[in-house]
Design brief:
Elements lengths: L4 H29 L6 H23 L2 H8 L2 H26 L3 H23 L5 H21 L4 H20 L3 H25 L4 H4 L2 H8 L1 H16 L4 H7 L2 H13 L6 H21 L5 H12 L1
Helix pairs in contact: 1-11, 1-13, 2-4, 2-8, 2-11, 4-7, 4-8, 5-7, 5-13, 5-14, 6-14
């Protein structure tokens, strides 16, 4: 079946939306570094508050209130959105903490291994079966994490926490069956009262950023909403125009930029052990991606086994 020129154009537009979304996510550490003078928990509170404000305006002007009202009337979806809000808040806090305490490289590792965490959740929750190539990819990634754990005597908990929370967030969102825009409004709406209470608590004690920071810093704090929601909206447009597998390829743009920023811009320590560990993870991702798009099949694995046996 031939593909029309219109479909090709739509696919190309979708790819560019995806590239834009993941590029913004990749450079996000530069934004959080502007707020390094403030505790990660306070930055998180502002990110939640202003994300809700921004997304509420998007829904208002796009006419998406009907979908939002229907979702609010569904108790099961509300429960799922509460879990989503909690998970994404923990994920956001961990990421902000990682960036502003000099662990951007470790954060990039978390998002590199995130797809493999999704596979593990698929096996445990949906009873999906793993191919031998997928099992190989998971083992290689685990070896990469184990190597850096043994070498430095500590588990890379930031990477594992980021991958774990984002995977559970994605799983919960899948179960809730809510579109990205409505979902983000509901997630931030549910956790926003806690964020607002914390901000008011700080401000009444004269310790908050709004009462003590410069006007520019206040604009940067308010901009947390736009910088959070914009790539999500771009992703939402992109996924509607191109394939899910293409978005799977593009998702590695963000952690790659994070890794480059960590090494070159933020001058974080990157040893030979780090490099070897990442090589295991990159090899795992290559195998995992090729298996997902059908390049590597079970029969391919079998041929290799027979070849080795001979």
């Amino acid at each position: 079946m031939s593909i029309s020129a219109k479909d090709l154009d739509q696919n190309r537009v979708g790819i560019w939306y995806g590239i834009a979304a993941y590029t913004i996510w990749g450079f996000l550490p530069l934004y959080w570094k502007l707020l390094i003078a403030f505790p990660p928990i306070e930055i998180l509170a502002h990110r939640i508050l202003w994300s809700f404000v921004f997304m509420a305006l998007v829904v208002l002007f796009s006419g998406g209130w009907k979908t939002l009202v229907l979702a609010l009337a569904d108790k099961k979806k509300l429960l799922m959105m509460f879990l989503c809000g909690f998970m994404i808040s923990v994920n956001w806090f961990t990421y902000i903490y990682a960036v502003n305490t000099g662990h951007v490289i470790e954060a990039s590792m978390g998002y590199f291994i995130n797809p493999l965490f999704v596979v593990i959740l698929g096996v445990t929750v949906f009873r999906e079966k793993l191919t031998r190539w997928q099992i190989t990819a998971i083992i290689l990634a685990a070896l990469g994490v184990l190597l850096i754990t043994v070498q430095y005597g500590r588990v890379p908990w930031i990477a594992l926490f980021l991958a774990g929370t984002f995977s559970i967030y994605g799983l919960t969102k899948k179960l809730a069956q809510v579109d990205l825009v409505t979902g983000l409004v509901l997630e931030t709406l549910i956790v926003m009262p806690f964020a607002l209470f914390y901000i008011v608590f700080l401000e009444t004690g004269n310790g908050g950023a709004l009462g003590n920071a410069s006007l520019l810093t206040k604009f940067i704090l308010a901009g947390c909403g736009a910088i959070t929601a914009t790539p999500l909206l771009l992703y939402s447009r992109g996924i509607g125009k191109t394939t899910f597998s293409m978005m799977g390829f593009l998702q590695y743009i963000a952690p790659s930029i994070n890794l480059i920023l960590g090494i070159i811009v933020f001058k974080e320590y990157f040893s030979l052990t780090h490099f070897i560990s990442f090589c295991f993870i990159w090899a795992a991702l290559i195998i995992f991606t090729l298996a997902n798009v059908g390049v590597l099949k079970e029969s391919t694995f079998g041929k290799i086994d027979r070849y080795k046996a001979s």
